């Protein structure tokens, strides 16, 4: 259904690219996740992969025509980042074993959900240069200067959080046993 909605959208460009990403990235994560979940239902890696795939689909709603779907996608376009970070920090056991990992994941979920609510409430899609986009149904008041300032603040977190994740992955890799390093190195 998402592929059809993206193909029929009268705005934007690169419809083929977005359809390809829907199929390759979304189905890749969801399909591999379902297989992993089936093979080892006690390990949460499969569930996190499926969640990442579906969160990718939610973000792609911003490329569709119906105003409600567009508005949800506009607000949650970066949602896929949170389960992907969760997946990386929980690999290979499927559990977040340290407090710092749980904190990083909680911060990431908060930023990609609640952090973008003010953008959806105070920035129209036209303010992003998309004059043909559907109406943002969540818009309360168009205030592009507030939106730019808020997005600048979110950009800082978009640098700090990934750096912290990379540091945590490196720390875990350094502490891992030799067999575990062989397992996690390709993923990291």
What keyword list fits this structure?
188 residues, mainly alpha, 9 helices, globular
Describe the model.
The protein has 188 residues and is mainly α. The protein contains 9 helices and no strands. Helix 1 (2-8) runs antiparallel to helix 2. The chain starts with a helix and ends with a helix. 29% of the residues are buried.
Outline: globular
* Mean of all residue-level pLDDT scores: 90
> Radius of gyration, rounded?
18 Å
Structural class: mainly alpha
What does the largest sheet look like?
Answer: none
Helical percentage? 55-70%
Beta-strand level of the residues, as a percent range? under 5%
The tally of helices reads: 9
Number of strands: 0
- Unreliable stretches (pLDDT < 50, length at least 5) are none
Distance between the termini: 33 Å
SSE pattern: HHHHHHHHH
Write the layout of secondary structure elements.
Elements: H1 2-8, H2 15-39, H3 45-60, H4 67-75, H5 81-90, H6 99-113, H7 117-122, H8 144-175, H9 178-184
Could you give a short description of this structure?
The chain has helices at about 1-10, 15-40, 45-60, 65-75, 80-90, 100-115, 115-120, 145-175, 180-185.
